Amino acid sequence: AMTEAVDVPVIASGGVGALEHLVEGVTEGGADAVLAASIFHFGKHTVGEAKALMLEAGVTVRPPDA
């Protein structure tokens, strides 16, 4: 995995078609952080929904108003 090959934080970006992909980027891919854009821009999901799902999966997220 990329995270094992480098000594800097890894941010996974791109390809988020479902909120579960954000969780998988951290839990399965080992990323230190994830980011997404289009999934929010077109009103498919909200940032709040993403954070709630990640919290349910045990992934640390910034507070909702951060």
Radius of gyration: 12 Å
Counted beta strands:
2
CA-CA gap between termini:
30 Å
Q: Report the mean per-residue pLDDT as an integer.
A: 91
The amount of beta strand, in percent, is 5-15%
Helix content: 40-55%
Low-confidence stretches: none
Largest sheet: 2 strands, parallel
Lateral arrangement of strands in the main beta sheet? 1-2
Number of helices: 4
The topology string of helices and strands comes to HEHEHH
Please state the structural category: mainly alpha
Oligomer: single chain
- Number of individual domains: 1
Give the overall shape.
globular
What does this structure look like?
Strand 1, helix 2 and strand 2 form a beta-alpha-beta unit. Helices cover 41% and strands 9% of the residues. The chain starts with a helix and ends in a 10-residue tail after the last helix. A two-stranded parallel sheet has the order 1-2. It contains four helices and two strands. It is mainly alpha-helical. Helix 2 packs across helix 4. It has one domain. The longest helix has 10 residues.
Provide keyphrases for this structure.
66 residues, mainly alpha
